[in-house]
Amino acid sequence: MERISSRRFLKSEGVIMHRLSLLLLCLISFQSFSQQFEVLEDDEASDTIEVHEYWQSRYYDSIPSAAYLVNTNTQTFEQLIAKYQEKDFVYSESVAQKMNFVDTILNRIMKLLEDLFPKSKTAVNKPFFYILGAMGAIIFLFLVYKLIFNRNKLVVYLKDEEIEEEEQVQFVERNLMHVRVQDYISEALKNENFPLAIRYQQLLNIQVLSRKGVIDWKHTKTNMELSEEIGNEELKRSFQESVAIFDHVWFGKFPIGKKEYDHYAQVFHQFQKKWA
Q1: Any transmembrane segments, and where (predicted)?
Q2: Full-model pTM
Q3: What are the φ/ψ torsions at residue 80 (nearest 5 degrees)?
Q4: 160-169 long-range Cβ contacts below 8 angstroms, 24+ apart
Q5: Which of 23, 174, 197, 232 could form a disulfide with 188 if both were Cys (CB 3.0 to 4.6 A apart)?
Q6: How do residues 155-203 score in pLDDT, each as one tens digit?
Q7: Is residue 229 part of a domain?
């Protein structure tokens, strides 16, 4: 039994050695084949590489070169950047310049609301703050609307009244020889428009002189031109006195009451009574 076991062991050991020998032989053969394959690749690569003439030594020696370096103006960074700091090269605009009038007003309103209702540190009061802010904005806009609306109505009313008054005066001036100026004076006094009454008094003086043939009346002539046409020196001084009162009240836009009007009206009445 021992001999049989020894034989089997030797037989199995021989098989293992045989297999190891075959494996080693295969590895050696593969290594040799790999080296030969690399040599073939190197030979093929060397056959395909082209040798250019500009790879040759001293090929570029014939190219001329500068004997010295050109002296260039080397500016510092500050000198170089200084000329680009002018206004023409500044492309950024401030936020204030981009904001229009409406944005400015809205920002001021929001700042006012924030000052009136400062933000609370607790999150509980935030809805209350928003409600107060909205109510304040609504009240403010309502007041602005009422102010502008009422003011526009007042301005329109005054403009219409002034236009109607000026048109009436122009009508009297153009038709001075065909209207009863005294009726317009009475209407102005009834409305307590004393400056307008003074203007009509001056037109009545001109009407008196024209009807007497003292002046050649045209509605385009000024009081100074009409005064130069008066030959009588006393009449001229009296007329110029009336003109001075008219210029002071009408063109000077000095407000006068009934007392001042009665004082000035005496001068016009004396002129009309004396020279009519």
Answers
A1: 128-149
A2: 0.43
A3: -70, -40
A4: 165/193, 165/196, 169/196, 169/199, 169/200
A5: 197
A6: 444 445 566 778 888 888 889 999 999 999 999 999 999 999 999 999 9
A7: yes
